[in-house]
Write a structure and sequence with these properties.
Layout: H1 9-61, H2 64-77, H3 81-117, H4 123-130, H5 133-149, H6 154-178, H7 183-219, H8 240-281, H9 286-305, H10 309-327, H11 331-358, H12 360-368, H13 374-380, H14 384-399, H15 403-425, H16 432-458, H17 465-487, H18 494-516, H19 521-525, H20 528-533
Helix pairs in contact: 1-3, 1-4, 1-5, 1-6, 1-7, 1-8, 1-9, 1-10, 2-3, 2-5, 2-8, 2-10, 3-4, 3-5, 3-8, 4-7, 5-7, 6-7, 8-9, 8-15, 9-13, 10-11, 10-14, 11-14, 11-17, 12-13, 14-15, 14-16, 15-16, 17-18
Length: 534
Amino acid sequence: MSNLRKQSFIQGTLILLAAGIINRMLGFIPRIALPRIVGAEGVGLYQLGYPFFIVLITVITGGIPLAIAKMVAEAEGENRPEESRRILHTGLTLSLALGILFTLVALFSASWVSNVLLTDSRVYYTFVSMTPMISIVAVSSIYRGYFQGRQNMIPSALSSVLESVIRIIFMLWFSWLLLPKGIAFAAAGAMLGVTVGEIVGMLVLLWQYYYILKKDKKDLPDPATAENDIPDPVIPEPSAGKQTSVLKRLLGIAVPVTAGRLVGSFSYLLESIITARSLALAGIATAAATAQYGSLQGMVIPLLLLPGVLSSSLAVSLVPSLSEAAARHDLATIHKRMHQALRLAMVTGAPFAAIMYILAVPLCTLMYGNADTAPMLRMMAPFALFLYVQAPLQAALQAMDRPGRALINTLVGAVIKILLILILASQPEYGIYGAIIAIIVNSIFVTLLHGFSVVKLIKLSIRVSDPLKTLAAVIIMAAGMSYIYTSVPIADAQWLQFLLSAACGMALYLGICLLSGLISVRDLDRVPFFKRRR
C-alpha cells in the first residue's frame, strides 16, 4: 500500500486530538443526562459492571493492537506492505478467537459475578448487556492498530467520533425506554446503547480499510504495460512458516503489554469490589455506597480525565513514531519526540487542573445539577497532572520494548492503591475519600516510576525549567480566576460567570506561557488553525 495517507507525528497527534476532544465533549452528554434519567444509583450499577468488561477486553486487546501498530510501522518503513497485511490477518484471527471465547465465559459467569463478587445483584442485567461488545471491540481494535502502524490516524478518528454519536443517542434512548421496568433495566439499557455504538464504529473501520485497499489497487501500474509484474495488493496466502513467525513475534510483544494492562484492569476491578465492601464496613448502606461509587467513577473521574485527551493522543502517536526511530537507532529523534510529548502533556493539562480546583463547585453544578461531587473533584484536581504525563511515559516504555518495566511499575502502584483503599475506605471518618486518597497516591507513584525508567533507558535529560514555569503560570492563573469569580458576580447567570472566569484564566495562562517560552510561535505554527491565519 502507498504511504500517501501517512501523517507526521504532530499531524497524527492533532488528528487524534481533534477526535478525542470531540469524543470527550460528546461523552459528557450522557454523563450529564444519564444521572438525570437513572440517578446516581443507576450510574453506580452501570459503573460496577464496567470493570469486568474492561478486564475481558484487556485480555483480548490489551497488547495485540499495540503489537500490530509496532510491527506494521516497521514493515511499512521497510516498504513491505504484504507483510503489513499478513500481520493484520494474523492479529484478527487471534483476537476474534479470544473474543468469542470470552463472550461465552462472560455469559456463563454473569450470575456468579453479580451475586457473589459484587454487593449489588442488580448488576446482572448490565453485565449480560455488555457481553456482545467483547467480540466487536476485538475486531475494531485490530484495525485501529493497523491504521496507527501505518501512521494514518484518520480511520481511527472517524470511527471513534461516529461511534460516540451513535452510542450517546442509543444509550440515552434505551435507558429512558427501560426506566419504567426499574433502575437495573435502565442501567442495562445504557450498556446496550454502548454496544450499538461499537457496532457502528467497527463498520466504519471495515469500510475505511476496504476503501483504502481498493484505492491502492487502482493506483498500481497496469501489469500489461509494466516491465515487471507487480503483485496484487490483496494479501497472498502466507506459508505456515511465515504465519507462525508473525504470530510468535506478535505474541512476544503483546503478552507483556497485555500483562501490564491487565494489572491496571484488575486493579480497577478490585477497586470497584473492595471500595464497595470497604464502604459497607464503614457502615454505609448498599444503595448509598453504590451512589457514592457512581459519583466518583461516573462523574468526577471523567471530568478529571477530560484534559488527558491530548496525552492519550500523544501516547498513540508515540508508539509507531518511536518504534520507527528505534529501528534506525536514531536517539536524537527519540529524545525530541519525548520532550515534545511531555511538554505538551504538562503545559496543556495544567490549566484544566486549575479550573477544576478553583471552579469545582460551579463546574459540578452546571454539569450534574448539584455540587455534591465538587469536594471530590477539588481534592483530586491538583494531582491530575501526574495522570496526563503518565500516558506518554508508558507509551515510550512499550515502544522501546520495555513493557515488562511498565508492568512492574503498574503492579507496584496497583498493590499500594488496593491496600490503601482497604485500609482507609473502611474507616467511617474517610469513607469514599479513602478511595480517592488511594487513587491519588497511585497516580503519583506510577508516574514517577515510569519517568525514572524512561530517563534511565534512553538517557533522557530532564528540563527542570519547564515544570517550574508551568507551576508558576498555573498559580498565577488560579489566583486570577479566583479573583474574577468572586469579585465580578453576574446575577442569575452562574454559567456565564464560570465561563468568564475560566476564559480570563486561560488567556492569562496562555500569555504567561508565551512570555516565558513554554509555548512558542513555532509551536502555534504547527497547528493548522493558527497557521492559516498568520
